Recover the amino acids of this structure.
């Protein structure tokens, strides 16, 4: 998370959420936009049209796969040593013991005012299951965590 300390966040009253920075599932994009909007409203901001907004909000979801497999190495070797020198034959076999693959859902949220980034936060959550409802719940938690540090001083009405 990064905040522009020179920015007076009390001056920011309205926002506009841009389309995702890379194409994603439309339902998921709508859900993310809605969740970000709800979080910013609780911070005292009001959604408005793009040309009237104090800040524009962009977001970039990403998915990564992390493979965390454990490998067991077995060494088999024979050796013959005599007066003429030595010969050593050996092989190492790698046997996967247990492969685990986990899916990480990442999200970056950036807020821009007058062409300058004033707030940027990114993070990721591990997805236990890959169904849409579980992903939405995890994204909700991630949005809440990423926007938690947004200055609440904006709630000066």
């Amino acid at each position: 998370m990064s905040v522009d300390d020179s920015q007076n966040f009390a001056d920011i009253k309205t926002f506009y959420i841009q389309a995702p920075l890379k194409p994603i599932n439309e339902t998921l994009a709508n859900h993310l936009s809605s969740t970000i909007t709800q979080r910013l409203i609780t911070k005292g901001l009001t959604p408005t049209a793009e040309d009237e907004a104090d800040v524009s909000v962009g977001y970039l979801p990403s998915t990564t796969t992390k493979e965390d497999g454990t490998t067991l190495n077995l060494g088999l070797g024979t050796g013959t040593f005599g007066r003429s020198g030595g010969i050593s034959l050996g092989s190492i076999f790698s046997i996967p013991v247990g492969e685990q693959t986990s899916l990480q859902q990442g999200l970056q949220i950036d807020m821009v005012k007058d062409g300058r980034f004033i707030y940027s936060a990114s993070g990721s959550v591990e997805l236990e299951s890959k169904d849409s409802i579980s992903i939405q719940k995890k994204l909700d938690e991630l949005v809440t965590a990423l926007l938690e540090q947004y200055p609440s001083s904006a709630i000066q009405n």
